[in-house]
Design goal:
This protein is of the alpha/beta class and 251 residues long. It is built from 8 helices and 8 strands, in the order H-E-E-E-H-E-H-E-H-E-H-H-E-H-E-H. The chain has an 8-stranded mixed beta sheet, with helices on both faces. Helix 7 links the parallel strand 7 and strand 8. Helix 3 crosses helix 4. The longest helix is centred in the first third of the chain and has 26 residues. The radius of gyration is 19 Å and the shape is globular.
Length: 251
């Protein structure tokens, strides 16, 4: 019996150490850049690292910055945004380590890069709106809480990555181990932008409870919550209710 207990403890410790050391491999899934949708046409230099991406509909007075999900090829959204929001200049900039960009993604680096990009383009537009999907919702809430933003759109968002991880890795002391927590709910009090939240009814990645806890922190700045029937985490943009809701948010 004692040997079994020792084996269990050793295995638990090994799994915990593996999770702790590889946790960012579980969180970030960088995808290589594709030129199928056109060559990159905009870049920003942050702390000596060049971040290149796509700017659609250049020259529009209003701008939309889009922050993608953890395994999203951000350029695959180009046809969607060109069709749905032609009156916005839309910025699709892969995170560090994503696309063809150098570096390694971390929570603080993603925040710093996002703020720098916001500051760089601010003078070129009359207003700036933000849109974050899944992991990108954590980046969007950070920028919205620290900068002047017109509209904030959160797609399949969470209250925190920490709580999402707790649901999955309930057997580990996640709060003590996690490096990147993305605590969006804690920042809601500092967000003044008109906010729209989109939920995929059949989301199997972000539990509904995590989105509901985020929603509970909002007050008057929350304009609308759209539940897209039959949509999944990765298919929500294929549904008409999502498209019409996005148009309302950016009208």
């Amino acid at each position: 019996m004692k040997s079994i207990l020792v084996t269990v403890v050793v295995l638990y410790a090994l799994f915990a150490l593996t999770f702790c050391s590889l946790q960012r491999k579980f969180l970030y899934f960088p995808q290589p850049a594709s030129n199928v949708y056109g060559e990159m046409n905009v870049s920003f230099v942050v702390d000596g690292v060049q971040l290149s991406g796509w700017a659609l509909n250049k020259g529009q007075p209003k701008a939309l910055i889009y922050y993608g999900g953890n395994a999203e090829s951000i350029e695959a959204n180009i046809p969607f945004f060109e069709a749905v929001v032609p009156d916005y200049t839309v910025y699709l900039i892969p995170y560090r380590g994503y696309g063809s960009n150098a570096g390694n993604p971390t929570e603080q680096v993603l925040y710093s890069d996002a703020v720098h990009i916001y500051k760089t383009i601010k003078s070129q537009h009359d207003s700036i709106s933000l849109m974050g999907r899944s992991l990108g919702s954590g980046v969007a809430t950070y920028v919205a809480a620290n900068r002047n933003v017109d509209t904030l759109i959160l797609v399949t968002p969470f209250d925190s990555i920490e709580n999402v991880a707790k649901d999955i890795y309930w057997m580990f002391p996640v709060s003590l181990m996690l490096k990147d927590t993305f605590r969006s709910a804690d920042r809601v009090k500092d967000i003044t932008a008109q906010t729209y939240i989109f939920i995929a009814e059949n989301d199997r990645v972000i539990p509904r409870a995590r989105t509901d806890q985020l929603i509970a922190h909002f007050g008057d700045q929350l304009v609308e919550v759209v539940i897209v029937d039959n949509a999944g985490h990765n298919t929500i943009s294929q549904f008409p209710d999502y498209v019409s809701g996005l148009k309302r948010a950016l009208d």
